[in-house]
Design a protein that fits this description.
alpha+beta; 4-stranded mixed β-sheet; two-stranded antiparallel ribbon; 4 helices; globular
């Protein structure tokens, strides 16, 4: 992959795990874990027209924590990995349709690279089966 995450992204990015009113992930740029938590709760509440008290979050991980937990050869790509104990790089699962509560172009570019590579893998697999 060619896109490298910006220094700002590496220092301020958090991935929040959403439980309710929707399950999934959100990427937030914040100065602290608590600020990321607050911003994610507020934005998800507004997007889903519910009160902040009805938004449940599970985990908030910083960029460095995600890199430490991941196994992908591309360290920046690890922010999109879904943690699976003892998974190898070939068995990775990736976040699906996360919320991007940031306009950091390097993060969005990295996401586009991942989706492109996953689509290419599917196409190669279909071509191999068709032969």
């Amino acid at each position: 992959m060619t896109t490298e995450l910006s220094d700002e992204c590496k220092s301020r990015l958090f991935r929040v795990t959403l439980e309710s009113p929707v399950e999934g992930f959100a990427f937030v740029m914040a100065d602290s874990r608590e600020a990321a938590w607050r911003m994610a709760r507020t934005v998800i509440a507004v997007l889903h027209s519910v009160g902040v008290q009805n938004v449940a979050l599970k985990d908030v991980h910083s960029f460095s924590e995600l890199v430490d937990m991941g196994v992908s050869d591309d360290h920046d790509m690890r922010v999109f990995e879904i943690a699976q104990p003892d998974a190898t790089a070939a068995e990775l699962e990736w976040a699906s349709a996360p919320y991007f509560l940031t306009n950091d172009s390097t993060l969005l570019g990295k996401w586009a690279e991942l989706r492109g590579e996953l689509a290419a893998d599917i196409a190669r697999s279909i071509i191999r089966r068709a032969k």
